[in-house]
Design a protein that fits this description.
Blueprint (H helix, E strand, L loop, with lengths): L3 E2 L3 E9 L3 E8 L4 E8 L4 H11 L13 E5 L2 E7 L6 H8 L4 H20 L2 E2 L8 E3 L9 E3 L6 E2 L20 H4 L6 H17 L5 H7 L13 H10 L11 H16 L22 E2 L2 E2 L43 H10 L11 E2 L2 E2 H5 L14 E2 L8 E2 L7 H24 L1
Antiparallel strand pairs: 1-2, 2-3, 3-4, 4-6, 5-6, 7-10, 8-9, 11-12, 13-14, 15-16
Length: 425
């Protein structure tokens, strides 16, 4: 079992690393599903403030992966989001290299749709790059893109968290005005979208500074592997002057739709089938499709948590199949004389069957801390000791001979002395 965070999120295995924290696959006990949980790995105030800003972002859009909930536990904090297991655009390029133009148009259209929702909240993402654009594992079907990682995003007008002359973002995807220290704006995100599109079509990481040099005399010719209709859109997104770019993601999306129609009429190019498959891998040991599992393999999530997030244990099963009263404390061990009387009053017990493999593993090992002491077994009976040692032979009821014989001798002596005292008087 993994670490349980704030009584709700059980961390299963690490699946990535974000800007300020590690990302885990975790089981949400309340919602009964797996989520992605980003756990803050630094405790300084600067990182914590960025973390608070990111978890406060709430954008409900099919192409945006924004935080859904958060929790704090001692000196750690985390927030959760949907678990997206199809990898990123960087993984897709690593698998296939340059992608077909029509497939790229679909991805860019979804990216611009998500960015429209982000900008509608007055938020500038500031770190759009292939590694931050995730994919659902849709196989050979239509791709489904999710824009993620809002660790350095900010609302327009909010105070900046960086020092003067310090640029935040990923080198190679900076807009020219970002390098000059300009205030973050929507057009900087659109410039990064143009670089992402170029990367998807060519399979090579673009360089914003190199692109700036090529624009000395206007929009340069289309790079190799980039169709001319699509370059008319990307070329305008990559304008060094933000005033000459598309002003909104909606405007760029409309131009992209027109370019996609022109590409659709060209049926000469054979389109490669691109498959988006699961990149996270199987669940670790101790976890199943329905949540964490115990030693017997059944889902612990089938139980309902209490108000504090803990789970009620079911009544323990008898060590050898005998019924026991649930939730009763262990009874005290009887004295030798009482045990002897109980043995005379009760009928002989049948031979015990072997311990069964039940919901919580081997019954003897799992229920011994909760099981009341068993009644003494008949002579020559084999039984399992409390701590799982080698089987020991059950003894007869009553005190052992080395205790009973001295006690009997002392009793006889006392009887003789008493008899002598009475006759002497």
């Amino acid at each position: 079992m993994g670490e349980v965070f704030a009584g709700r999120y059980e961390l299963a295995d690490p699946i990535g690393r974000g800007g300020v924290g590690a990302v885990w696959r975790a089981w949400d006990r309340r919602r009964k599903r797996y989520v992605a949980a980003k756990v803050l790995q630094q405790s300084d105030a600067h990182s914590l403030l960025r973390f608070v800003r990111e978890q406060a972002l709430r954008i409900d859009h099919p192409h945006v992966l924004a935080p859904a909930s958060w929790a704090a536990d001692d000196d750690k904090v985390l927030f959760t989001m949907d678990l997206v297991s199809g990898g990123s655009l960087a993984h897709l390029i690593g698998d296939y290299g340059p992608l077909p133009p029509t497939f790229v148009c679909t991805l860019l259209d979804q990216l611009l749709a998500g960015l429209t929702a982000v900008h509608a909240e007055d938020v500038v993402h500031r770190d759009i790059k292939p590694a931050n654009i995730l994919l659902e594992p849709t196989g050979k079907g239509r791709p489904h893109l999710r824009l993620s990682d809002f660790g350095i995003s900010m609302r327009k007008g909010e105070p900046r968290l960086t020092e003067t002359n310090y640029v935040v973002g990923t080198p190679g995807y900076f807009a020219p005005e970002q390098l000059m220290g300009a205030e973050p704006d929507f057009t900087a995100d659109l410039f990064a979208v143009g670089l992402v599109g170029l990367y998807l079509l060519t399979g090579q990481k673009p360089d914003s500074m190199e692109m700036l040099a090529r624009y000395e005399h206007g929009i340069p010719p289309a790079p190799e592997r980039v169709p001319e209709p699509l370059w008319q859109v990307l070329g305008q997104l990559l304008q060094p002057d933000p005033e000459q770019r598309f002003r909104t993601a909606t405007g760029a999306r409309k131009a992209l739709a027109a370019a996609a129609e022109m590409l659709a009429t060209d049926g000469t190019a054979e389109q490669e089938v691109v498959e988006v498959f699961d990149h996270i891998g199987p669940l670790p040991q101790g976890f199943g499709p329905n949540g964490p599992v115990n030693g017997g393999g059944s889902a612990a999530s089938a139980q309902s948590p209490s108000a504090t997030g803990s789970f009620h244990l079911p009544p323990p099963q008898g060590t050898f199949g005998a019924p026991e009263a649930p939730s009763t404390p262990p009874t005290p061990t009887p004295t030798p004389s009482a045990a002897y009387g109980q043995a005379l009053a009760q009928p002989s017990q049948p031979a015990h069957p072997p311990a069964q493999q039940g919901q919580y593993g081997t019954a003897a090992a799992a229920t011994s801390p909760y099981t009341a002491p068993q009644q003494p077994a008949p002579a020559q009976q084999q039984t399992v000791s409390q701590y799982g040692q080698q089987p020991v032979r059950a003894r007869k009821p009553g005190p052992p001979p080395k205790v009973a014989v001295p006690v009997l001798i002392v009793a006889l002596i006392c009887l003789a002395v008493g008899f002598w005292a009475l006759t002497a008087a």
